[in-house]
């Protein structure tokens, strides 16, 4: 903390608590914590105005490490706790930290309703595709056939696609980042913060103990240019080591085209539009592994798939409170106690 | 012609018909009218779980019982003096509960072949003709036919006209009991202000029923029940759930806090949500959550933010809220959890009453997890109980369970409502902002082991709380063995300490020592008191104590239990309070239990008591 011209300036370190961080060495959570603290310093967020609410799991220890208000609640219920808090105190800046098990398995129901209601808060979903805190069972985002302690013959569960899920329930801000790209992650944290309504940011996070390398295909220096695409509003969808590939919409079917050899130019490509929900749904479906029906694999999109404006739940709720006072006047306790029909015993 | 007026001291009347016949509304309107006439009263609605159970069948019979009189009325009455039966099934289902010589008002149009078959009258037997009603005063009215005739000029469909037949019956009863139609006319005008054809038809049917009594020569007598000697003051009629709602809002106003209510629809608690949603101008924030768990979790969030937070449900929902209740007690945040009990276990009997969630309230959580438990004893008492639950939650920073039940929720009685100025304020203590950066201890306690409320947004108080065991004082996560034991004991001591802030147990009636004590809790209050009153009048040294505080118990309860030779504990469950009393006080008690989804009758309890007393 330093003081410039009488104003206190907070550094990233000022958002750290005195508590020893107890994630495993090498865990992707450290990078996320660092970027959140760094983003907060950039925004100079007041530490007393921010609340972190989490559920249960490795990611849900996050509030203990942020020098803000925080609640480590119960498994899966952080969205519900946060909704109640936002209704009570709309002025607070609330962040929900959850994981793939907490948010999409035990708490999946609450996430649906948080997103459709568009409560004004930010969700960071750390997706490591494994149960870490319970020591290595498959999670709802684990790939099919995954061998874990609870699936010795391979998982027979079909995985959930978190961004398709969020769009499916009409989330108003849907984005993806990863722990191994801290600059982009920080940018996405800032975008989440700026959104009015529920922001949903999925963060690919490596669990180096129970699921090491789950996202290596997207982070490995050799391959990532071919396997990832970074979305920018108003820009064509281009990727590849030399930006030589692009995505074109063939009717409703996204196809990979070459800009150098196939005779396509940038003008033929799909221009990303964050406000187009139909296209966002297609982008969320860039999800399958390589080799679908002989087509070259679609790269995994990172960035903001969708960002739209819709009134927040708490603004509508408080709007009704104000309207009720306007129509009926502030409640009078004596009128409430007496009701409409009374009689007197003399 | 002039008709004689006979004065009666008390009457028990039951309205029975198909679940679509509007019997609950008819009963409620007659009750409101009765209250205005100055009678004391108690009601008992009894309806099927299905919205429209198969028409005409015994399973589909919906009933509403009202007991009113010119003396103190404590129960809805055992047997009825008057039965209104809209069809054959309604008659059959209720005949056994009729006192000898009572009046039966039957809609003869509800006794055709189909109705008789559906009511399972065998071989074409028609009870109106077979002689089974000998000894009763049977008043036969072709209600359906007369209602249609009265509405002959109306453009409504026959189906809609038939929906008005309950108003015809109500009008007839208003004539019979010498009442004014005004309260019902006001109600109809307000309720149907935008459906003028229906409004007109309902009023026409109501008046037609009244005039029918007046003009048909067969009816020679009208009845009147004089006002009851109630305490002086202003009264209103109130149902339990509405009283509970008013209690919650009053507590919020007296604490100077917004009220947050998170709930998921469930019988018989849903009316609390409906009602609170009408009071947004009192800064009441209702949240219909996606499930029971979200309902309580949202309330915990709202409590953390500084609202008076409440969640409400019934037994199955309590089961789902269990883990979150543990969180609230671990965080030490104020929260009121209303359980409007119904028959269990599992889905059980959704529309029937039971007191079988007491042990769940006291013990139904993982770990050492004491939560104060408070019970309401009558419909109007739901106001006091709700206010008290909020007071304890706010002043002792703890979740509190408030037990009501289906019988209280839907039952009604006159309520001498208080004036706002006479209700005490609820002092709430928040942590003040800090400027100097001194270490902040969110779990520092006062002499009653209570921590202060530290609201997010307060300068200098940033801190983390959670469900993991926390270090005394700092609230930081701690796995230290001695600290855990200390924290378990301090959380228990905090709840035990509440006994210093509640009144000593008083007697509802009877001497401070004697042969027999009735110890009850919850909705059995009126029943037990009326039995005790009877026995006292017969010279038995009997008393009645009724518990509002089930955890912690009042300090003097153990001593009180020793002042009587025998203690009977009547409950609508399999003996839950009995177990707790034995465990806590090593005092032998005699359980009296009925688990049939309906209240214990006066005759049943009195008979049992006489047997225990060997008389």
Summarize the structure.
The complex is a heterodimer of chains A (346) and B (615). Chain A has helices at 29-43, 78-88, 100-106, 108-117, 162-168, 182-194, 216-219, 224-227, 277-284, 313-328, 333-338, and strands spanning 2-4, 7-9, 50-54, 69-72, 93-99, 122-127, 173-178, 199-204, 228-230, 238-239, 245-250, 253-258, 300-307, 343-345.
CATH superfamily of the largest domain in chain B: Pyruvate-ferredoxin oxidoreductase, PFOR, domain III
Radius of gyration based on Cα positions of chain B:
27 Å
Which CATH architecture of the largest domain in chain A is right?
3-Layer(aba) Sandwich
Give the count of helical stretches of chain A: 11
The number of strands of chain A is 14
What Rg of chain A is obtained from the alpha carbons, in whole angstroms? 23 Å
- Give a short account of the largest sheet of chain B: 7 strands, mixed
At CATH level 2, the architecture of the largest domain in chain B is: 3-Layer(aba) Sandwich
> Oligomeric status of the shown chains?
heterodimer
CATH topology of the largest domain in chain A: Rossmann fold
Give the DSSP E fraction of chain B (strand runs of 2 or more residues): 15-25%
Give the overall pLDDT of chain A as a whole number: 95
- Specify the structural class of chain B: alpha/beta
The percentage of residues in β strands of chain A lies in 15-25%
* Biggest sheet: strand arrangement of chain A: 4-3-5-6-8-7-13-9
Textual characterization of the structure:
The complex is a heterodimer of chains A (346) and B (615). Helix content of chain A is 29%, strand content 20%. With 346 residues, chain A is an alpha/beta fold. Chain A folds into two domains: 2-232 and 272-307, Rossmann fold (3-Layer(aba) Sandwich); 236-271, no CATH class. In chain A, the strands form three sheets. An eight-stranded mixed sheet of chain A has the order 4-3-5-6-8-7-13-9, with helices on both faces. A three-stranded antiparallel sheet of chain A has the order 10-11-12. In chain A, strands 1-2 form a two-stranded antiparallel sheet. In chain A, a hairpin with a 5-residue loop joins strand 10 and strand 11. The longest helix of chain A is centred in the last third of the chain and has 16 residues, at 313-328. The mean pLDDT of chain A is 95. In chain B, the strands form five sheets. Chain B has a seven-stranded mixed sheet with strand order 11-10-12-13-15-14-21, with helices on both faces. In chain B, strands 3-4-2-5-6-7 form a six-stranded mixed sheet, sandwiched between helices. A five-stranded mixed sheet of chain B has the order 18-20-19-22-23, sandwiched between helices. Chain B has three domains: 4-225, Pyruvate-ferredoxin Oxidoreductase, domain 3, CATH 3.40.920; 237-422, Rossmann fold; 507-612, Rossmann fold (3-Layer(aba) Sandwich). The interface between A and B is large, with 60 and 73 residues.
């Amino acid at each position: 903390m330093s003081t410039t011209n009488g104003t206190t300036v907070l550094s990233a370190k000022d958002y750290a608590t005195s508590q020893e961080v107890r994630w495993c060495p090498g865990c992707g959570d450290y990078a996320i914590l660092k970027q959140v603290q760094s983003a907060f310093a950039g925004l100079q967020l007041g530490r007393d105005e921010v609340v972190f609410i989490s559920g249960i799991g490795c990611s849900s220890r996050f509030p203990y490490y942020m020098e803000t208000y925080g609640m480590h609640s119960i498994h899966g219920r952080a969205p519900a706790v946060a909704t109640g808090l936002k209704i009570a105190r709309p002025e607070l800046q609330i962040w929900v930290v959850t994981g793939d098990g907490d948010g999409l398995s035990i708490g999946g129901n609450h996430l649906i309703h948080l997103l459709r209601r568009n409560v004004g808060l930010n969700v960071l979903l750390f997706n490591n595709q494994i149960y870490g805190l319970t020591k290595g069972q498959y999670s709802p985002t684990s790939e099919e056939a995954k061998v874990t302690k609870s699936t010795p013959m391979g998982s027979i569960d079909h995985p959930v696609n978190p961004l398709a899920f969020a769009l499916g329930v009409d989330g108003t801000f849907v984005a993806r980042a990863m722990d191994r790209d801290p600059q982009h992650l920080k940018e996405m944290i800032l975008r989440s913060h700026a959104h009015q309504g529920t922001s949903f940011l999925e963060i690919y996070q490596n669990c180096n103990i129970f699921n090491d390398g789950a996202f290596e295909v997207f982070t490995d220096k050799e391959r990532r240019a071919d396997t990832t695409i970074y979305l920018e509003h108003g820009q064509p969808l281009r990727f590849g080591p030399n930006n030589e590939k692009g995505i074109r919409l063939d009717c409703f079917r996204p196809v990979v085209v070459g800009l150098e050899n196939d005779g396509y130019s940038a003008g033929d490509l799909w221009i990303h539009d964050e406000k187009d929900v139909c296209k966002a749904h297609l982008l969320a479906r860039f999800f399958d592994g390589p080799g679908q029906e002989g087509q070259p694999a679609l790269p995994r999109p990172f960035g903001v798939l969708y960002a739209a404006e819709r009134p927040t739940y708490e603004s509508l709720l408080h709007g009704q409170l104000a309207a009720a006072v306007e129509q009926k006047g502030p409640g009078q306790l004596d009128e409430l106690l007496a009701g409409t029909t009374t009689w007197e015993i003399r | 012609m002039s008709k004689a007026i006979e004065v009666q001291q008390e009457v028990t009347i039951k309205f029975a018909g198909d679940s679509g016949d509007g019997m609950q509304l008819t009963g409620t309107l007659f009750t409101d009218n009765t209250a205005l006439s100055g009678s004391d009263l108690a009601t008992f609605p009894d309806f099927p779980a299905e919205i429209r159970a198969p028409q005409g069948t015994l399973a589909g019979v919906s009933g509403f019982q009202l007991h009113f009189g010119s003396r103190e009325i404590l129960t809805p009455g055992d047997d009825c003096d008057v039965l209104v039966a809209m069809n054959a099934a309604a008659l059959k289902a209720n005949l056994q509960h009729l006192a000898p010589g009572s009046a039966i008002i039957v809609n003869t149009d509800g006794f055709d072949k189909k109705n008789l078959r559906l009511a399972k009258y065998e071989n074409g037997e028609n009870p109106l003709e077979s002689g089974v009603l000998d000894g009763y005063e049977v008043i036969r009215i072709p209600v359906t036919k007369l209602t249609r005739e009265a509405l002959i000029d109306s453009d409504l469909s026959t189906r809609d006209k038939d929906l008005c037949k309950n108003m015809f019956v109500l009008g007839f009863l208003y004539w019979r009991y010498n009442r004014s139609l005004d309260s019902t006319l006001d109600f109809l005008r307000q309720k149907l202000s935008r459906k003028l054809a229906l409004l007109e038809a309902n009023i026409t049917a109501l008046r037609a029923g009244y005039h029918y009594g007046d003009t048909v020569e067969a009816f020679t007598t009208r009845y009147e029940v004089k006002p009851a000697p109630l305490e002086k003051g202003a009264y209103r009629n109130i149902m339990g759930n509405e009283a509970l709602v008013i209690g919650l809002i009053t507590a919020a106003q007296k604490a100077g806090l917004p009220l947050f209510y998170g709930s998921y629809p469930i019988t018989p608690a849903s009316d609390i949500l409906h009602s609170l949603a009408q009071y947004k101008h009192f800064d009441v924030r209702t949240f219909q959550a996606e499930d029971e768990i979200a309902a309580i979790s949202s309330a915990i969030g709202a409590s953390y933010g500084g609202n008076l937070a409440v969640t409400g449900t019934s037994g199955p929902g309590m089961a789902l809220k269990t883990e979150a209740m543990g969180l609230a007690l671990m965080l030490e945040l104020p929260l009121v959890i209303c359980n409007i009990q119904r028959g269990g276990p599992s889905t059980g009997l959704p529309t029937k009453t039971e007191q079988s969630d007491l042990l769940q309230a006291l013990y139904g959580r993982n770990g050492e997890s004491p939560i104060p438990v408070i019970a309401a004893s009558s419909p109007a008492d739901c106001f006091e109980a709700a206010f008290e639950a909020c007071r304890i939650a706010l002043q002792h920073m703890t979740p509190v369970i408030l037990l009501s039940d289906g019988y209280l929720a839907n039952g009604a009685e006159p309520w001498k409502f208080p004036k706002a100025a006479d209700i005490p304020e609820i002092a709430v203590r928040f942590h003040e902002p800090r400027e100097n950066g001194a270490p902040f201890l969110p779990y520092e306690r006062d002499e009653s082991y209570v921590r202060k409320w530290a609201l997010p947004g307060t300068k200098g108080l940033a801190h983390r709380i959670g469900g993991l065991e926390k270090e005394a004082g700092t609230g930081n996560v701690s796995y230290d063995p001695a600290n855990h034991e200390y924290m378990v004991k301090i959380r228990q001591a905090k709840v035990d300490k509440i006994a210093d802030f509640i009144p000593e147990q008083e007697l509802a009636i009877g001497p401070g020592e004697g042969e027999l004590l009735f110890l009850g809790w919850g909705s059995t209050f009126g029943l037990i008191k009326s039995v005790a009153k009877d026995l006292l009048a017969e010279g038995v040294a009997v008393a009645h104590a009724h518990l509002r505080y089930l955890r912690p118990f009042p300090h003097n309860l153990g001593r009180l239990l020793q002042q009587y030779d025998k203690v009977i504990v009547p409950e609508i469950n399999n003996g839950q309070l009995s177990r707790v009393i034995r465990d806590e006080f090593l005092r032998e008690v005699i359980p009296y239990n009925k688990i049939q989804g309906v209240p214990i009758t006066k005759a049943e309890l009195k008979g049992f008591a006489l047997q225990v007393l060997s008389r």
